[in-house]
Design a protein that fits this description.
152 residues; single chain; mainly alpha
Amino acid sequence: MKRAAKTPSQAVAAARPGLPGWRAWAAVAVGGLIGTELRYGAGLAFPEAPGTIPWTTLVINVVGSFVLAALTTVWIARPKTAFWLRAGLGPGLLGSFTTFSAVVFAIDQQFRAGFHASWLAYLGLSLVLGLAAAAAGWKTGKALADLTGGAS
């Protein structure tokens, strides 16, 4: 039996096992563009005043924690979900929509300005609400996976 010739992308993938294909790279790039624009738009729509808790960043990160946990839980139940889709939505869209660096930057700015109560409250809220959102996302993802019949 004669084998079909490999395409250039198949040859590269065979030479470097474990390396994501072009679809994953493109999905991360497109997802990153969309997530960045959504975050930028939220910052314009809801600007943050100096010396206060950065509510916009907090809400963005909490929502992102919820959605990423829900999607990850669904993907665990449905392991055949295309890798490029998981990469585009997870690290791409949600990775650029939520950022730990924005939390650290806000805390640094508030600390340097002497707004100690504000940065301490923000740090505490970020940790507690982020973990709570991830737990709620996990429960939601599990319920969605159970509702749709789990793995397929």
